[in-house]
Amino acid sequence: MHAMTEPAALSIEQWQNHIAAWKDSGNTQANYCQQHGLVPHTFWYWKKKLSAISAPSARPSPAPFIPVAVVDEPAPARAKQNACNAAQSITTAISVHIGNGNGCRIDLLPGFDPATLRQALAVLRD
């Protein structure tokens, strides 16, 4: 049984070796320290310090950059997209509000589609 006085100053490598040996030993920290003449509090300090050094950072690593190529759409594709956007704005120019037995209200904005209004009215009449 060794006394609880540690040698002058152990190197980081020596502490790493002690901690690795303790993990492999299956002993408690107190028993390991007693067997090797180490002060338990100092052992705990170095175990914590070395685990903080070897542990990966708590901050997430930045996402890798993904190369992106910007390509201008051909003119026909842009024209088709603009036509779709225009059609959507026409169809949203009609708004139908139905109350609880108190009738309904139809809001028409400039550019509404008369054919869509006729279909909406036909559905409301049924």
Overview of the structural elements:
The chain has 126 residues and is mostly helical. Among the domains are: 12-54; 86-125, no CATH class. The protein contains five helices and two strands; from the N terminus they run ααααββα. The protein has helices at residues 12-25, 29-36, 40-54, 75-91, 114-125; strands at 94-98, 104-108. Strands 1-2 form a two-stranded antiparallel ribbon. Strand 1 and strand 2 (104-108) form a beta hairpin. Helix 1 crosses helix 3. The chain is elongated, with a radius of gyration of 39 Å. The model has no long low-confidence stretch (mean pLDDT 74).
**Can you summarize the main beta sheet?**
2 strands, antiparallel
Termini Cα gap? 99 Å
Oligomeric organization of the protein chains? single chain
Radius of gyration over C-alpha positions, nearest whole angstrom: 39 Å
Number of helices: 5
Fraction in helix: 40-55%
Which residue ranges are poorly predicted, with pLDDT under 50 across at least 5 consecutive positions?
A: none
Which shape, going by the Cα principal axes? elongated
In the sheet with the most strands, the strands line up as: 1-2
Summing up helix and strand content along with how strands pair, one would put the structural category as mainly alpha
Number of extended strands: 2
Mean pLDDT: 74
What pattern of helices and strands is seen along the backbone? HHHHEEH
Tell me the strand percentage band: 5-15%
Q: Which terms would index this structure?
A:
5 helices, elongated, 126 residues, two-stranded antiparallel ribbon, 52% helix, mainly alpha
